[in-house]
Amino acid sequence: IAQLKDVIIKPDAPSSLLLDKHADYIAAYGSKKDDYVNNIHLKYDNAIGKMDTINVDKAVEFVLSCMNFDGGFGCRPGSESHAGQIYCCTGFLSLTGQLHQLNADLLGWWLCERQLPSGGLNGRPEKLPDVCYSWWVLASLKIIGRIHWIDKAKLRRFILACQDEETGGFADRPGDMVDPFHTLFGVAGLSLLGDEQIKAVNPVLCMPEDVLQRIGLQPDLLS
Amino acid sequence: QHGRVKVKTTAQQEEEKRKEREKKLQIYVAARDACFTKRKDGVFDDEALQLTQQLLSSNPDFATLWNYRREILLHLETVRNQDEVQKIYEAELSFLESCLKVNPKSYGSWHHRGWVSARLPRPDWARELSLCDRCLSLDDRNFHCWDYRRMVVKMSGVPVKQELDFTDRLIGSNFSNYSSWHYRSTLLPLLHPQAPDTPSQCGNPPPSASPQTHFHRVCEEQLLKEYELVQNAFFTDPNDQSAWFYYRWLLGRAERDEMISCVYVSREEERVAVAFSRPVNAQSVGLLLILDGQPQRVEWQSVHPHFKNSPVWICSLPPGTISDVANEHNLTVHWTEKHSHRDCALYTGRSESWCRDTATDLELFRSELSVEKTSVLQSELQSVRQLQELEPLNKWCLLTIILLMRALDPLGYEKETLAHFQTLKDVDSMRSAYYSDLCSKFMIENTILKMEYAEVRVFSISDRKLTTLCHLDQLLLVTHINLSSNQLQQLPPQFAMLQCLEVRIGTLFFLLFFINLNSEISTLADLQPLASCPKLKRLDLRGNPITQTTNAEAELAGLLPSVTDLLL
Question: Which of B281, B419, B477, B565 is deepest in the core (most CB within 10 A)?
Answer without folding.
Answer: B477
